[in-house]
Write a structure and sequence with these properties.
Elements lengths: L31 H8 L17 E7 L4 H5 L6 H5 L4 H4 L4 E2 L6 H10 L3 H4 L5 E3 L6 E3 L9 H4 L5 H7 L3 E6 L7 H6 L4 E4 L3 H12 L5 E7 L1 H9 L4 H18 L6 E6 L5 E2 L7 E3 L4 H4 L2 E7 L2 E6 L4 H12 L3 E5 H7 L8 H4 L5 E5 L4 E3 L5 H4 L3 E2 L5 H4 E2 L2 E4 L1
Parallel strand pairs: 1-7, 1-8, 5-6, 5-7, 10-15
Antiparallel strand pairs: 2-17, 3-4, 8-18, 9-16, 11-12, 12-14, 13-14
Helix pairs in contact: 10-12, 11-12
C-alpha cells in the first residue's frame, strides 16, 4: 500500500484505483491472529505482520468502533491507551487497516479466520445470497442460512486448539451461540461475562492457563454510543474513558510471557443530517433505476442490478455520486483488491454488481427500507482513514 499521504489525495473524478486499499497480507486485521499463532508454532498459519515479536501467550482485546483517528483525537479521555500509541504495530507507532468494508461482521470474520473478505465470504453488512436472491444481514444472520456453508474455513482458534494451544474467547454471554460467533470465533472455550471488569479479569486468568495461550475478548458499547450519539458526544467520550480503564486493568494483570494487543474492527465518522450529506436512495429515482436490491450500508453500498441493467446502473451511479464516492463494478473492485487478493467462487455473486465506497462525509441512506440505520449519527464502512485505520496497541509482560 502507498504511504499514508495517499489517503489524503482527492483525485477528480474518483478513479477506482485511487481508493486506498487495505494492507492485506502485511498489516490488516486478517493478518493479526495468523501472526500470533505462527509465533506459537501453530501449523497452517503465517507470520504476516513483520513488526510483531513472537511470545507464548497472546491476548487480543477488540474494542468495537475504536478507530485510530478517534483515539488520537481524545488523549484526555484515554490517557492509558494514548500512552501506548508509540507501541502500536510492534513499536512502529503506526496503525493497521481493518479491511473493506470496515464493518463489524466483515472485520470479526477477518480477525477470527485470518482471511480477507473475498475468501471468508462476509463482504458487507448486508449482501445478496446467490442461492435465494435475498439480502442477508451478516451481523444479525437474517434470514438464517447454514453458517458452515456460508463460511467453511476453520478459525485460527480452531487451528490453535488442534496444535495444543489453550484457546478462549471472553465476551458477553449474548454472543455465545450466534452464527457470527460460530463462523468467525469458534474454537477453544467460550466464557461469557456481563461486565467489562469481569471480562478483563477472566481474560488474564485464561492467559495463564496454558504454556501457550490465545485469548480473545471484546467490548461493544463504544460502537453503540458512536452510532446513536456520534463520536464527539459526551456519551461516546464517557465510554472511551471506561474502556481505557478496562485496558489498563487487563494490562496490569498479564501473566509472564504475555502480550496484549488492543485493536478495533473499524473507526467511525459523524455525518450531518441534511440532504447534502445524506442522499436518500428511497427518494432518488435516478439511483433506484435498474436496481433490484440495495445492500451494504450507507458508506459502503452493494448495488444489485436487475438482469441486463448492471452497466446502466454503474454509469448512473458514477454520474450522480462519482465526485464523492469511489464507484466500481464488481470486477473492477475485485481487480483493485478491495476485498483482498483473491475472491472465492462462492463469494463472487455476494458482491454487488456495483460497489459505492464513500470518500467524503456523506451517506446513501434508505429511509424507508432501513429506518434505524438511516437515523444513525456515527457511521462507517468505507476506506477513509477515519474508518479504515485501527490501532494495534501492545503491552508485554
Amino acid at each position: 500500500m502507498a504511504q499514508f499521504t495517499a489517503w489524503e489525495s482527492h483525485p477528480e473524478p474518483l478513479a477506482v484505483h485511487s481508493a486506498p486499499v487495505p494492507e492485506y497480507g502485511s498489516g490488516s486485521l486478517a493478518d493479526l491472529l495468523p501472526t500470533l499463532a505462527a509465533g506459537m508454532g501453530v501449523p497452517e498459519t503465517t507470520a504476516a505482520i513483520p513488526e510483531l515479536t513472537a511470545t507464548d501467550r497472546n491476548c487480543v482485546f477488540l474494542i468495537d468502533g475504536l478507530g485510530w483517528e478517534q483515539l488520537r483525537a481524545h488523549p484526555e479521555d484515554a490517557p492509558f491507551m494514548t500512552s501506548l500509541l508509540s507501541s502500536s504495530r510492534g513499536g512502529t507507532g503506526r496503525p493497521i487497516t481493518a479491511g473493506y468494508p470496515a464493518t463489524t461482521a466483515t472485520s470479526l470474520a477477518s480477525v477470527g479466520t485470518g482471511l480477507p473478505p473475498g475468501a471468508h465470504g462476509l463482504p458487507g453488512y448486508t449482501v445478496r445470497n446467490p442461492e435465494t436472491g435475498e439480502l442477508m444481514n451478516q451481523l444479525r444472520w437474517n434470514p438464517w442460512t447454514s453458517p458452515r456453508v456460508w463460511q467453511p474455513y476453520p478459525t485460527v482458534f480452531q487451528l490453535a486448539q488442534q496444535a495444543g494451544v489453550h484457546a478462549a474467547q471472553v465476551s458477553s454471554p449474548t454472543f455465545q451461540n450466534t452464527p457470527l460467533t460460530k463462523v468467525a470465533l469458534s474454537g477453544g472455550t467460550f466464557l461469557g461475562r456481563l461486565t467489562g471488569e469481569d471480562r478483563m479479569d477472566l481474560a488474564a486468568e485464561q492467559l495463564a492457563v496454558g504454556d501457550r495461550s490465545l485469548v480473545y475478548t471484546y467490548y461493544a458499547e463504544l460502537d453503540g454510543a458512536g452510532h446513536r450519539y456520534g463520536v464527539d458526544s459526551d456519551t461516546w467520550r464517557g465510554q472511551l474513558m471506561y474502556v481505557d480503564r478496562l485496558v489498563q486493568r487487563l494490562a496490569e494483570q498479564l501473566p509472564p510471557r504475555s502480550a496484549l494487543y488492543v485493536t478495533a474492527d473499524h473507526g467511525m465518522i459523524d455525518v450531518a443530517f441534511d440532504e447534502e450529506h445524506r442522499i436518500d436512495f428511497d427518494e432518488d429515482w435516478e439511483l433506484r433505476a435498474g436496481v433490484a436490491l440495495l445492500g451494504g450500508e450507507g458508506r459502503a453500498r452493494h448495488v444489485y442490478a436487475v438482469p441486463g441493467a448492471a452497466g446502466d446502473v454503474l454509469t448512473c451511479w458514477r454520474e450522480v455520486l462519482g465526485e464523492q464516492f469511489w464507484v466500481a463494478s464488481r470486477d473492477e473492485a475485485i481487480e483493485a483488491g478491495w476485498f483482498g487478493p483473491r475472491i472465492d467462487e462462492r463469494v463472487y455473486d455476494r458482491i454487488g454488481d456495483v460497489i459505492a465506497a464513500a470518500r467524503d462525509d456523506v451517506l446513501i441512506i434508505a429511509s424507508e427500507r432501513e429506518p434505524k440505520e438511516s437515523a444513525m449519527v456515527g457511521n462507517h464502512g468505507s476506506m477513509t482513514p477515519a474508518e479504515q485505520l485501527v490501532p494495534l496497541l501492545e503491552v508485554r509482560s
